[in-house]
Amino acid sequence: MATTSSPQTTDLQTYILRAEDLDHNGEVDVLGTPAVIYAFEIDNESLGSSFLAMWNSGYIDWTAPEVLFRATSTTHFVIHVDNDFTFNEAVSIAQANINTGAASVVDVDVSIFAKRFPG
């Protein structure tokens, strides 16, 4: 899985994260800092449904994700968050073919637009 994070200096975001072929093992503390999430882009190019899960912690626990999005097969969409998702500990992400962390489908890419958590 290729994951890249780009620090930004605009008023809109301080991080743009791109995770290509995100899998069920995921990425812990993917930004390296607490953050507020304002938008997601999810691109499921596979033929199977997928779930993107997010945790406000430094570990992945499939029994209790804070955020869970379903991406049906071959879908591409953007989610704008009006009131933000606040991750005041860390941002951890993973993807699976069911919402309990089972082995992943392939070809799911995720982009996250975030701002460093104030404080």
Which features would summarize this protein structure in a list?
globular; 8 strands; five-stranded antiparallel β-sheet; three-stranded antiparallel β-sheet; single chain; mainly beta
Describe this structure in words.
By secondary structure, this protein is mainly β. It has a single domain, classed as Jelly Rolls (Sandwich), CATH 2.60.120. Helix content is 0%, strand content 50%. It is built from no helices and eight strands. It has strands at 2-7, 15-20, 35-44, 50-55, 67-71, 75-87, 92-96, 108-116. The protein has a five-stranded antiparallel β-sheet, with no helix packed on it. The chain has a three-stranded antiparallel β-sheet with strand order 5-4-7, with no helix packed on it. The termini are far apart. The mean pLDDT is 86.
